[in-house]
Every structure is written in structure tokens, then in C-alpha cells.
Amino acid sequence: MDLAEIQAGRQRLARARRVAVLSGAGVSAESGVPTFRGPGGLWENHRPEDLATPQAFRRDPALVWRWYHWRRRLISACQPNPAHLALAQFEARVPEFCLVTQNVDGLHHAAGSRRVLEIHGSLWRVRCLGCGAAGEERRLDLPTPPSCPECGGLLRPDVVWFGESLDENLLGGAWRAAEESQVMLVVGTSAVVQPAASLTQVARRAGAYVIEVNLDPTPNTGQVDLSLLGRAGELLPLLLQP
Ligand code: BJW
Ligand code: ZN
Question: How remote is the CA of residue 127 from the centroid of ligand 2, in Å?
Fold first, then answer.
């Protein structure tokens, strides 16, 4: 851990009035939530890329739902970790702040973050394939896909699967936050899934100072202003302290 580099990043963040954050699964790893592409990313020998698609759900809704059922139960027992908490406390000190998260686990909200854009949706919401009705669903005793109370149609998790478009308003908000930020912090994402991965370049092109925090180098690493290799739960509390 290079303390001089952390100090440089901390000063940039402490002075900034407009900060954007892009978070990924690595932020929740220390809470016990498996990442997608790391160890533990396979579920019953299925790759997430094979389950997180509309085709997979159409082919076998019960299988895909079972994966979500397992994750919902696992995550319901997880608590926010020091990385989530440091972000929530930091938000309170920054006039213009936006936390763009790819995570669907709800742990940023649980930590007290308010200005959050969940661009890949939420595990705690469902949406009807028949009538489109959407709403919160936090029950944990649903091992098979539930049906819609309005029309009897099949309910799916209200998340964004491969090949699906992100919500226009959320993506627009994320783009604006990246463009307008003075500092962008990119934490715990492998930076391979588009369009989220492009937000780093958007921020850089608009003149932001970009800081990446990750256990390992990513495709972004060579292009950011400061790359800090290490655990988010250790680095963020240092980086985001007043
Ligand atoms: C730690 C740590 C610790 C570990 N501390 N760090 C070019 C342009 C545009 C689109 C595409 C394109 N090429 C291909 C596409 C299509 C596709 C895509 O990007 N594919 C790539 C894989 C190539 N994108 C889409 O389909 C998107 N839609 C779209 O683009 O619509 C328009 C369109 C459609 C079709 C064609 C063209 C355009 C939608 C993407 C939706 C992603 N959905 C998922 C599932 C969500 C629901 C669910 O959770 O079940 O989102 S996939 C999965 O990946 C999930 C994540 O949010 C996302 C990103 O993963 P993340 O967060 O980066 O996690 P990992 O596991 O990859 O990385 C963890 C990182 O943490 C690692 O780096 C570790 O080192 C680190 N780490 N512990 C710090 N303690
Ligand atoms: Zn319905």
C-alpha cells in the first residue's frame, strides 16, 4: 500500500465539489457477496453470462429464478462493509455527488447512501413479463418464479441482463455525473461490461481526475490518473476520510 499515493488521492477527493463514483461487485466482496468473474462466480457450474440473459430466462425460468433465489437469500444475510460505509459518509460532505452502481444487492442503500443510480437494477424488485408491472419484492421464501398479482404473468428480477438496454434516465444521469465530475472514483469493477465501463473514459475526456481502486489491474488501469491496488474495504476509508 503506497501511502503517498493514497494521500494524493485523498487530497483530490477532499477538495472536489463534484464527485462521481462507479462501483462494481468488488465493493461487496468483503461483505461476502460473490463477484461475477472471480472465484465463486460460478453457480452450480453455470457461468453468470449464461444465466443473466433474457434467452436463458425464456428457456428455463425456474433455473434462472433459482439462481436469484440463492443470491437473494445469501445477500439478505450480508451487511455493508467499510467501503460502503465510507462512501455513504463521504457523500454527506460533497455538494454534487453521484454513486453509479452496477451492483444489484442494495448494500449501498443499506449503508446510508442516498444519491445512488442502480444502473443494472435491483435484486429486490420484480417486473412482470406480461403487463410490465414492477415493484419491490423482498420475500425470501420464493424458490420458484412468482406470478404477477395483476395479470398472472411470469415475474422476473428487475435487473438488466446481457443484450438488454439500460434505463435511459439512469444511464443519462450516470453519463452526466461522469461528464460533470471533477474526480471520478472507480471501485471494484472488472470494467469489461458496457456501457458502464465507458463511464471512466467519459469522465477522463471531460477533464476529470480518475482514481481506480481494485484488487487487480483492469483494462482501465493504464488510462487512469491514479490506480490503487488493494481491498476496497481498506482503501476507501483511508481515501475518503476528511
Ligand atoms: C475487488 C475486491 C475487493 C474483488 N476490493 N476490488 C460494446 C458496447 C456496448 C455493449 C456491448 C459491447 N460489447 C458487448 C456488449 C454487450 C454487453 C457487454 O458489455 N458484454 C461484455 C461482457 C463484452 N452489454 C450489455 O449487454 C448491456 N446492454 C447493452 O449494452 O444494451 C445495448 C446493446 C445490446 C446488445 C448489443 C449492443 C448494445 C447490459 C449489461 C448488463 C450486465 N448485467 C449484469 C447482471 C445484472 C443482474 C445480476 O446481477 O444478476 O451486471 S452482468 C454482471 O457484470 C453484472 C455486473 O453489474 C456486471 C459488471 O461486473 P463487475 O461489477 O465489474 O464485477 P466483476 O465480477 O466482473 O469484477 C469484480 C472486480 O472487483 C474485479 O476486477 C476484482 O478484481 C475486483 N475485486 N474483490 C476491490 N475486496
Ligand atoms: Zn402482470
Answer: 8
- Ligand closest to Cα of 70 equals 1
Cα(17)–Cα(23) distance, rounded to whole angstroms? 19
Q: Is the CB of 37 under 6 A from ligand 1?
A: yes
What pLDDT digit, counting tens, does each position of 117-162 carry? 999 999 999 999 999 999 999 999 999 999 999 999 999 999 999 9
Q: How many other β-carbons are positioned within 10 Å of the β-carbon of residue 113?
A: 23
Q: What domains lie within the chain, and their CATH numbers?
A: 3-33+79-120+166-239 (3.40.50.1220), 34-77+122-159 (3.30.1600.10)
Nearest ligand for residue 132 CA: 2
Q: Nearest residue CA, atom 21 of ligand 1?
A: 193
Single pTM value for the model: 0.97
